[in-house]
Amino acid sequence: MSAVIEIEGLRKTFRSLRRGRRVAVDGFDLRVEAGQVHGFLGPNGSGKTTTLRALLGLVRADEGRLTVLGESSPERLPRVAGRVGAIVESPQFFGNFTGERTLRLLARAGGVPTDRVYAVLEQVGLRDRADERVRSYSLGMKQRLAVASALLKDPELLILDEPANGLDPAGIREMRDLMRSLAASGVTVLVSSHILAEIQLICDHVTIISRGRRVAAGPVSEVLAGFDRHEFLVRADDLGHAGELLHAAGMGVAGHDDHLVVTGVDDATTVSRTLGEQGVWVRELTPLRPDLESVFLELTGAPTGPGVPRQTEGPTPAAGRDLSNADESRGTRTGGDVIDLDAQGVDA
Ligand SMILES: Nc1ncnc2c1ncn2[C@@H]1O[C@H](COP(=O)(O)OP(=O)(O)OP(=O)(O)O)[C@@H](O)[C@H]1O
């Protein structure tokens, strides 16, 4: 499999008088292969956006080797920019323009034939609403419009930073369906998120970042399997007796109100046979598989919401995340824009 994105040893430190030195990304590695829908998962402030910005040449890396579609970034990024669509943070559009006009302008600015506008409107499911003003769009529709703008170039690689952020469940479902259909059409997708269930539903591969470092990577099923403790939930009539029998047979047993959790068992029949042979009949025997949420919590030690401690050196940073005047590398951090690599070039 060929690598579409390769990051090795990425390091990025931000410096400010007020907050001191802040290591945002610390020797991070990422590999995305062609055809993958790759989830880039991490708690708030773990370094996802910084990594994507470095990859797209929007922030200068201190160290590391980055390549996109085989070309090193940022030096040779312009060579492949036409094959990459990217959205980093929430895009801003003119509310007075219709969706179609917005895309027409972007297509013209990017030298893309305007018949692509109808194709991408169809692709993101906005064809019927294309003549309505963007101001009347829901957040989910605006996000889909952003994806449409990134698709104008018919990219091979789509990079989306938190596309489901702020969406309601219906919006999340629409975004999920859209990403699935893009993947089915052969686009490689790298999607960052702290919404674990989404990553588990959409992505085939995942890289988990915590405090700027990679803590897990691989096919979602393999990452999960690595955390499978071979646990079963057991319900039986005489729980106390059942627990004793299972314990005597060498299994780990934890008692709960109305069930037992048995660990260290490879096969459910071991449990049912051990109990059945002693006349204790099992009413329920359910394997307890790890989900990405429990794996994520174990690896990052972090809740999925805000307020996660940052990796810092120097003075203790203020709590919470205030980036409004914080971008020492480029002046002010812009409040989210559709990144057109052709138009913006690179910040080398
Ligand atoms: N321009 C900047 N100036 C100073 N510090 C920054 C800047 N950008 C990011 N940081 C800090 O670097 C760390 C990583 O931030 P980053 O935005 O990359 O994380 P994230 O995983 O994308 O978080 P979120 O999910 O909240 O968007 C944080 O501590 C953040 O405060």
From TrEMBL:
Keyword Nucleotide-binding attributed: yes
One Pfam family cited in the UniProt record for this chain: ABC_tran
InterPro entries: AAA+_ATPase (IPR003593), ABC_transporter-like_ATP-bd (IPR003439), ABC_transporter-like_CS (IPR017871), P-loop_NTPase (IPR027417)
Gene3D superfamilies: P-loop containing nucleotide triphosphate hydrolases
Keywords: ATP-binding, Nucleotide-binding, Transport
Signal peptide start-end: none
Region spans: Disordered: 300-348
Bilayer-crossing regions: none
SUPFAM superfamilies in the cross-refs: P-loop containing nucleoside triphosphate hydrolases
Keyword Transport: yes
GO MF terms held by the record: ATP binding; ATP hydrolysis activity
ABC transporter domain boundaries: 5-236
Family under the similarity heading: Belongs to the ABC transporter superfamily.
Protein name from the UniProt record: ABC-2 type transport system ATP-binding protein
Organism from which the protein derives: Micromonospora nigra
UniProt lineage: Bacteria, Bacillati, Actinomycetota, Actinomycetes, Micromonosporales
